[in-house]
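Box 3.1. Reading complex inputs
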Amino acid sequence: MPLRLLVLASLALLACSGCGSGGHEAGAVVRVTERDFRISAPRHVRSGDLLLSVRNRGPDAHELIVVREGSRLPLRRDGSTVSEERLEPVIVGTLEPGQPGSSRKLRLHLAPGHYQLFCNMSGHYLGGMHTKLVVG
Amino acid sequence: MLRRRQAFRPFATRGRRTIAGILATFALFSTLTVTVSIWATSGSRHRASVLEVAARQRTLAERYVKDVLLARAGAQADPALTGRLLALSADALLNGGVAPAVNGDDDETLLPPASGVTVRAQLRQERRLVRDLTATGSAVLARRPATAVKLTADERLTARDPVERLRVLSALTSNVSLNAARTIGAEDDRNIGRLIVIEVVLGAIGLLTSLLLAFGLIAATRRQTAHFRSLVTSSTDLVLVFGDGGCRYASESVATMLGHPEDDLLGEGFAGFVHEDDRASVCAAYAHGEPHEIVFRVANEFHEWRHLEAHVTDLRADRQIRGIVLNARDVTERLRLEEELTHQAFHDGLTGLPNRALFRDRLDQSLARSKRSHEGLAVLLLDLDGFKQVNDSLGHDAGDQLLEEVARRFGEVTRPADTLARFGGDEFALLLEGANETQAVAAANRLVRNLSEPIRIAGHELGLGASVGIAMHAGGEAASEELIRHADLAMYAAKEAGRGRHEVFRYDMARELGELLGLEHELRLGLQRGEFSLHYQPEIALDTAAIVGVEALLRWHSPTRGSVPPAEFIPIAEATGLIVPLGEYVLHEACAQTARWLRNAALPEGFVTWTNLSGKQLSAGGVSALVREALEAAELPAGFLGLEVTETALVQEGHAGERARAELQELHELGVRIAVDDFGTGFSSLGQLRSFPVDMIKVDRSFVQGIEHDAKDAAITANLVSLAHALGLLAIAEGIESDGQLTSLRELGCDLAQGFLFARPAPPEEIDRLLAEGSARVSGGREAAA
């Protein structure tokens, strides 16, 4: 009986803290879905604090890189991946590869501008895994 | 309880079952664990092959692009083969089957179908990408536009350059291959983790189950032990367990009874308390388990000997005991009672001297010795002169004191080897072994002389004399009864000749005693003339004060002698055989009178008329026929008649004794009641009483008279009453004269009583009156009824 009470109490506490942090500290939640070989995300978001909730629907594993760059991205010499070295100054956030079915979160503070979201696993950018995001 | 191993059987079975359960649980869970491990190991081996093939796909995809480019440039390459290998491997990875050898340095591998949703999704994607890759490759080789190839894996290629498209597809293929391999690896890790968890859980369940069973077993053992312990400790039986090194266990009752602390009893301690003479048999019993029954003495804390009767059981083979068990009972009190009663049977209560029975026994033994040695012996019978007067004038107490003093004086001039006895009343006897007539006469003189000094009793100086009859036996064969009778006749002659004399028996003496012959003659005449009559003394139930029976007593009123007491004529009647017709008369008359009462409806239920049966009558035989005849003649139901038999007549040995017992048994089965008269004065073994047809025992008047003041008499009476009750018999006390005696008897739980206190023997008409009143003595009756 005391154990059950404790569990109920902690659940209630968790729920409260969840709604608190989601509303004020983390800013707007942006849902991003990755699948072979496409990234779905809103076209426009408000600038400021954002929480990217990234869901990988597979079947392959996917990473997520956010860059402040509106135009076509430069490739490495292997011809199948984007050169992150050259994009270094404009990378605003990265997520390591996530297994299919997984959900990851990425906290960002975005100033207004043009951004791109892409997966840089071998061939995935060229296979179509990139999308544009306008922050206003 | 210890002896019966059966009592442990349920527990033993349960114990064995539980242990079997524990072993089975261990076996089951061990088998499960091993099976799971084997299955997991074989699965793991397969997975290693899968992993190898999956990782190989990446290389194959890159080689395919290279082969296509080489082939297009006209170089030696077989992209079609590489593409087929890729496709076959992808298929085998997904659906199971044979994965082909690639380089010749590896073999064909048989793969199981892929399991796991993620892996299968990735492998399916891989197969699609391989198809897109090979299709694009074929288009490139056939110089067809690569953009026309229909893509199946949802990839969105923007490049138009066929080589570019080929590279991207290859990258996608190798990427998904790599990830599939990783997923399989991760799956493997998870499986190993799961395996560990399963094995830990299985082990835990097995261990837990075994522990539960083991604890159950321990608890059951504890309960059993506690049960056993409480049985042993609450029992009054003493339980001792012996093993190597002496006593291993002594129940609490042992320590309680002996008063020694338990520690002193354990080990060799117990043997130290055992009586020296019994130690050998006790040690043998607990070392070898034999003998099975032992009686031995153990000292208690006050250094008193307690007698233990032990049953010895060898349980050394019993794994739960591993020792020799003594189940003992404290029989000290029983032995003391038996000893007391045996002493009582052979000794005179007042003086402590041997009684007639013991004297007879000693005489028999002396005669047996004399037969061999041809040495002579003498029997002296002494009768005090003037004792009756002392008794009558100064009372029974003074008489008793006088007798004690006389016994002491006689003892002073008697050698320890001689047997001095009191036959009853003022009659003493002395047995002199190896004596001739001169020595016997000298002894008689000593006895009489030592009595001549006045005795001071109750303020009176009493001068007593004694008449002594001497019977000599020169050696050879003789009967003890005959010798005693001769001494008796000689004493009679001495008394006749004047007081303070002694006479030696001579054969002509009997004839000279015409008196005796005359008495016999008169007895015969009296029987014919009907000078005999019966008086009846009521017997009272002590709890209700109701009359429950009468004792028929023979009376002789001789026209020449007046009223003759039975003590005088019964011995003559017995000696002459007149007792038989006299007995017939008593039976017929008693039955006829009882039948009259019955017809007059004067008798309460369960009423019994008791008649005395003499030993002579019993040994003569025919009692059974006589009694039946008397009952039939009077038309009296057998249950109304009771026979009083003396102890000695009942325990008589030989053919006559057996016949007498058989006849009594027969009558008893007919319904006739049997009582033992003068109980407590003749039995050598109480055990015998159990086998006789007896309903009631009569406590001798000599005990009843002393019951108030003599602790010993009281104790004996108490024992006799409780003995009677233990044997399921009624106890009746005779000779009750005072209220004090009545009170004592009531306290002892005596059932019936008779005596002057209630009613004297009376003629039948008087009994009619008493029966009509319903109770014997008004005061006693009221008290009891209140």
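In summary: The domain at 236-330 of chain B is CATH 3.30.450.20 (Beta-Lactamase).
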